Amino acid sequence: MLAVDPLLSGGIGLAEVLIVVGKTVFTFALLLVAVMFMIWFERKLISDMQNRIGPNKAGPWGLLQTLADGIKLFFKEDLIPDRSDRAVFILAPFLSLVPAFVTFAVVPIGGGFDGDHDGVVRIFGHDTYLQLADPPIGVLLILAMSSIAVYGIMLAGWSSGSKYPLLGAVRASAQMVSYEAALGVATVAVVMMTGALSTHEIVIQQAGDGYDLFGRLPLPHWNLIVTGVVPFVIFLIAGTAELNRPPFDLVEAEQELVGGFNTEYSSIRFAFFYLAEFMNTVTMSAIVVTLFLGGPAGPVFGGPAWLWGVAWFVAKLFIFLFTFVWMRATLPRFRYDQLMNLGWKVLIPLALAWVLLLAAINIGRDEDWNAGVVVAVCFGVLVAGWLAITAALRQGQARRQEEDVYASSTTGPREGANV
């Protein structure tokens, strides 16, 4: 497992240990700086969209506002409720923060991936990758860390010893379970088409020449195109729900739950939850770029290939960070029944159906079947299944309406009510 990175393939000595430690410090510092920039970027962009000024006092253009807020929260009084489970209450913020860093550790952030390079860079005479770790089960590690992050929110609400945080934690468990399934099935489509669980190998599979649309317009070999766009859309929607960002921020829902799961937190522990939210936003954007948009892969126009990889990765990452902020400034919050309906009745069936479609196409290609016939039959089956699900949902809704009408007709006016 350690030998996946060429740095560790020839044995582990002092130089290898120092390089790994340096990469760890650099990755952690890079993620923290990215989070600080993301907080400033979101506040500034939303203020521009709403015709406001935004942060402009601390540092040039308000860039140090996030640092000032962090220092303020660090020195504020730390309160722990009397009825709380003290140990779990203290541990919960770290369970939300640490998985985001562990996930970012397996994301390639640079390197040459133009078809002639495989992302290897040379640091102090040793070959390695521009990512902290490349385990052969990288995709499974991402999904595992996404699941562990849920425990931070759940335990924070449960350990607070208050009703409103507990309601926020219950909402979190239902929301995370619902959208974790759609997220995982969408990821299966990528793994099935690339044949790899390593994030580095997934980027290599997307590098090089792609497709020619109508023989004229070149298209990249991204999984966004290979999987047929639908898994990408499902992953993006489910990922937004996993991040608890609008329009899926029902875990907090301050207008309904007085702040949600973090109501009883203060000082730096309160800041950890918001730090984890923005850190997860950066990490989820990096995962989307890696799985569907080729990560650092892109053309090299001269100069160091690894530097072009960093530039392509940052450019793609910025697009999704802007998209998340745009959604937050634009879309209203879903109702809870709409949230559950979208997850269980739309995203999960669509993700499963699309995976089956891709599997049928792959089998047909291996067996040398007629591609047009395979696609036509699969789409026919999918349409029939969708119509059956829609009919069943409509029938269930009609029955509920009949039951409501019957219940209202059999229940007389309440005692003392005005008739």
Number of strands: 4
Overall 3D geometry?
globular
Number of helices: 13
Strand content: under 5%
What helical percentage do the residues reach?
A: 55-70%
Write the layout of secondary structure elements.
Elements: H1 14-49, H2 65-74, H3 86-104, E1 120-123, E2 126-129, H4 138-159, H5 163-194, H6 199-205, E3 211-213, E4 217-219, H7 223-226, H8 230-242, H9 254-257, H10 267-292, H11 305-330, H12 336-366, H13 371-410
Antiparallel strand pairs: 1-2, 3-4
Which features would summarize this protein structure in a list?
mainly alpha; single chain; 419 residues; two-stranded antiparallel sheet
What does this molecule look like?
With 419 residues, the protein is mainly alpha-helical. The protein has two domains: 2-334, no CATH class; 345-397. The chain has helices at 14-49, 65-74, 86-104, 138-159, 163-194, 199-205, 223-226, 230-242, 254-257, 267-292, 305-330, 336-366, 371-410; strands at residues 120-123, 126-129, 211-213, 217-219. Helix 5 (163-194) packs parallel to helix 12. The longest helix has 40 residues, at 371-410. The chain is globular, with a radius of gyration of 24 Å.
